[in-house]
Specification:
There is one protein chain. By secondary structure, the protein is mainly alpha-helical. The radius of gyration is 18 Å and the shape is elongated. The protein has seven helices and no strands.
Length: about 120
């Protein structure tokens, strides 16, 4: 199943008149890896958004669209719990165990809760 990021990446590639091989060479990956990212079989390398913006001189709007598409395409998340306090660790584990059973309404309430909180900057 092609991801939102895969659709945006493919559109960028086609709009630039490139085949898979061309973009893969620019990104310094194999065409099969690029294809796997496009169809969602491989994760999006962390540096790709900046690299794509640089290579293709993307506007701020286009880069923001790619960032949104990348965020919507995340299929798994890994949390490092080694540096958090016990209450946060417990909350993360309870959430992970309950995730598959959340209703849409419960998920919306959680989204509203977290959207209302300012993001914490890393020190």
């Amino acid at each position: 199943m092609i991801t939102e990021f895969g659709k945006a990446l493919r559109k960028l590639r086609i709009d630039c008149g490139e085949i898979l091989l061309d973009m893969a060479k620019k990104l310094e990956v194999t065409p099969s890896f690029l294809s796997a990212v496009e169809v969602g079989k491989k994760g999006i390398p962390a540096h790709w958004l900046d690299r794509l913006s640089e290579l293709y001189q993307l506007s701020a709007e286009t880069k923001a669209g790619l960032e949104r598409a990348a965020a919507e395409s995340v299929l798994s998340i890994k949390l490092n719990l080694s540096q958090v306090e016990q209450p946060q660790r417990k909350a993360a584990l309870v959430f992970a165990r309950s995730f598959d059973t959340l209703s849409s309404e419960e998920a919306d309430k959680l989204l509203d809760f977290f959207k209302a909180r300012p993001l914490q900057e890393a020190d």
